[in-house]
Amino acid sequence: MKKMKIGFIGYIRPDEPDFWENAKALADLGYQGMEGATALLGPDGNTDQIKRLRDIGLQPLTVSVGMDQLTEKGIQGLPEKAHLMGVDNVSVYSCSILNGHMGKHVTYDGFMKDVEVLAHTSAALKQEGLTLRYHNHAPEFRMVYDGLTAFELLLRNTDDLQILLDVAWAAYGGVDPVQVINEWGPRLHALHLKDFQHAPLRTAWKEPYHSAFTSVGSGVVNIRGCMKAALDFDLTWGIMEQDSMNQLSVMDTLRTSYCNVKEYGLAE
Question: pLDDT tens, 162-196?
């Protein structure tokens, strides 16, 4: 049976005093990678902490970059940073479409300007042997222009961009993430495994983030189905993410989430 490597993002930070202790505990449990490791790269390109991360059993998974940087500077410095970190991709975690969460109207022209930047940047990075990955939130599935969701427009107007699919935000946006995986599998690079407890989905744009995020496998998102569908497309990585803690501590949440997907028989 195919299985996924499991990583994490956001739970523990390199600036915390117990970071290395917790990172080692997670590696010992079975986690194999970390998004957000860009912070471990020294300002002068020192890679000692990147090596230390690998030595304990966690590999850095991506170079993180903001949309503003891509718009203003293109790929400047990104290939060099990816080489230093030993990764083959760059991740951008939102664009102007996210303003829909904050009650702001996002025009078609404004969104398509970002899509153009993403298309150009992903093509330029491909020339450097790198993949650009885009991480969705809910508005990509809620915002509709001329009958197409922003998510569909994004993929139809880019050739080289791949998706780091956040399955919980897809579900929160009103779609079935398993169906999204089956439809767009060849364009997916990895999954962000995230879950939330049952609550009515609010329809107004002016809304706070969902307040009931929970350990992966303990909520209403079809995590098992998402992983099985992704494995059919040979996706390698499932990355745990939880935007806010619920009843458990950070480390207990990470342990619970890993053990849940391990119990599915779908995690290495």
Answer: 999 999 999 988 999 999 999 999 999 999 999 99
Q: What tens digit of pLDDT does each residue of 208-261 get?
A: 555 588 999 999 999 999 999 999 999 999 999 999 888 999 999 999 999 999
Phi-psi region of 266 (alpha: psi -120 to 50; beta: other; left: phi over 0): alpha
Is 268 within a domain?
no
- For position 25, which CATH number holds? 3.20.20.150
- CB atoms under 10 Å from CB of 249, counted, come to 10
Task: Tokens for 123, please give them.
Answer: 């093509």
- Residue 29 counted as domain residue: yes
Range of the structural domain that residue 36 is part of: 5-263
Coil, strand or helix at 255: helix
**Alpha-carbon torsion (100, 102, 103, 105), positive or negative:** negative
Number of domains composing the chain: 1
Q: What is the pTM of this model?
A: 0.94
CA distance 99 to 106: 7
Residue 78 falls inside a structural domain: yes
